[in-house]
Design brief:
Layout lengths: L5 H6 L7 E6 L5 E9 L3 H4 L1 E6 L2 E6 L16 E4 L2 E5 L3 H10 L4 H5 L14 E9 L2 E12 L2 E13 L5 E6 L16 E4 L4 H11 L5 E10 L5 E7 L3
Antiparallel strand pairs: 1-2, 1-10, 2-12, 3-4, 5-6, 6-7, 7-8, 8-9, 10-11, 12-13
Length: 237
């Protein structure tokens, strides 16, 4: 699989929806993850990311405009020991609770499927980073309908051990804008990761469609110590 430019992938797609990036910094010392949300409706665009404990949650920017919190208010990022969980929905809690009971990432997601937002049936995308005393691996998952058929759920997990420096993988909910929105297809995209946390954050945010982007979270985790830096960018300020 060819290594792609994340900036070009984003700049050439007006509506990838929600996206997760996981990989390793170019110098090989940091585990890297990013999560962004986009929106077309007033309800979806009326959000911000706020820090909560070691993770983040979504919050209504203007509570008076919040019409339906069911699929837009959740904790996208939670930390369980040396594991960082990143998802596009409340399955963050499902994974956290399952792994806390010694279930695997994949086993935890067996109880969930795509979102019930007919006719899109938005895929649930999830990622997990495991950083422990100098070792690092990660996995990505997508739960999606079978070509828009709500009676059939397709489950894919992609695991990456000892990832290479300067690269990562990118998965997002929709192939592009549409009505209904077409679900992501294929393996997560192999992409280049370069720069420090600030330059990486700027590249992603500036590449997202200006009308549709809502919020961005980026974290760099030191693979040796487990310490981390976080950046959050919100269109609504």
């Amino acid at each position: 699989m060819n290594k792609l430019s994340l900036e070009e992938e984003l700049a050439n797609n007006a509506y990838p929806g929600r996206g997760i990036v996981i990989g390793k910094s170019a110098d090989g010392t940091k585990a890297v993850t990013a999560y962004f949300i986009m929106g077309r409706s007033v309800n979806s665009r009326n959000r911000v990311f706020v820090e909560e404990a070691q993770g983040i949650r979504t919050e209504a920017f203007d509570p008076s405009k919040l019409s339906d919190p069911s699929l837009i208010i959740y904790a996208p990022v939670r930390v369980l020991g040396n594991k960082t969980i990143v998802t596009n929905g409340d399955q963050t809690d499902t994974i956290y609770e399952g792994m806390d009971r010694q279930m695997t990432f994949e086993q935890s997601l067996r109880t969930r499927e795509f979102e019930p937002d007919s006719p899109n049936y938005t895929p649930r995308i999830s990622g997990i980073l495991h950083v422990e005393k100098g070792s690092y691996n990660y996995a990505l998952s997508i739960l999606k309908s079978s070509n828009g058929n709500p009676d059939s759920c397709q489950r894919y997990t992609f695991a990456y051990e000892n990832p290479a420096a300067g690269e990562g993988h990118f998965i997002h909910t929709y192939m592009h804008d549409g009505d209904p929105l077409p679900s992501f297809e294929g393996e997560p995209k192999r992409i280049t990761i370069d720069g420090d946390i600030d330059s990486f954050t700027d590249k992603i945010w500036n590449s997202l469609n200006g009308d549709n982007k809502v919020s961005l979270f980026v974290r760099y985790i030191d693979i040796q110590s487990g310490s981390y830096e976080t950046r959050i960018v919100n269109k609504n300020r």
